[in-house]
Write a structure and sequence with these properties.
With 160 residues, the protein is an alpha/beta fold. It is 43% helix and 21% strand. It has six helices and five strands, in the order βαβαβαβαβαα. The protein is globular. The chain starts with a strand and ends with a helix.
């Protein structure tokens, strides 16, 4: 196994595709830091605290996974966590351009930190948090797309 890696994201909510990548990375790296961004340009359905709680509950069985929140530049946060690799998921070719841009910019800001790309299992290649949110808010069944903690959070949010 290689040292630590950081997996940043909004995780609004965490999906089974995210969990697939995290679990696979946890077999390759000694530590996986799941870093939930506080200052996303996206508007989120769940608060930062709710997202952190959902992620923690969903990953509680993974012993070498650390869950935390951050704001500011990812590169700066990665330095504070002493990790030299960033994990990013690629579902489709449409993700590649954006992810390549991010990886290149991060390398300009910190040449010592590398970006590693993983693709999710085929059954999760179409799953995104935004699509899951839309399905759930329209009353659809998301039980095959998100962990139980996220399903429960949707139920609570929709009732409120």
């Amino acid at each position: 196994m290689v040292g630590g890696i950081i997996y940043p994201g909004t995780f609004d909510p965490i999906t089974n595709g995210h969990i697939d990548l995290i679990e696979r990375a946890s077999r390759l790296f000694t530590k996986v830091v799941v870093a939930i961004t506080a200052n996303s340009q996206k508007s989120t359905l769940f608060t930062l605290e709710e997202r952190e709680s959902i992620v923690r509950e969903s990953l509680s069985k993974n012993h070498n996974v650390e869950v935390c929140t951050f704001s500011g530049l990812l590169i700066d946060f990665a330095r504070t966590k002493n990790v030299m690799m960033i994990l990013r998921g690629l579902r489709a070719i449409s993700d590649f351009d954006y992810e390549l841009q991010l990886a290149s910019l991060n390398r300009v800001m910190e040449p010592k930190i590398e970006t590693v790309f993983l693709t999710p299992a085929e059954r999760y290649a179409y799953v995104s948090s935004s699509v899951v949110r839309e399905i759930a808010l329209l009353g659809g069944d998301v039980s095959l797309l998100v962990p139980l903690a996220a399903q429960n959070a949707f139920r609570s949010k929709i009732k409120a």
